Amino acid sequence: MNKRDVYITEVALRDGSHAMAHQYTVDQVTRIARGLDEANVPYIEVAHGDGLGGSSLQYGRSATDELELIRAAASVCSRSKIAVLLLPGIGTVHELKAAEEAGAKMARIATHVTEADVSKQHVHMARDLGMETVGFLMMAHMAPVEELVTQARLMESYGADTVYVVDSAGTLLPHQVTERIKALRQSLRINIGFHGHNNLSLAMANSLAAMEAGATYLDGSIRSLGAGAGNTQTEVMVAVLDKMDINTGVDLSTMMDLAQDIVAPILPKPQEIEKGSLILGYAGVYSSFLLHSERAAQKYNLDIRDILVELGRQKVVGGQEDMIVDVAQNLAKKKEALI
Ligand SMILES: CC[C@H](O)CC(=O)C(=O)O
Ligand SMILES: [Mn+2]
Question: For this structure, is 175 an active site residue?
Answer without folding.
Answer: no
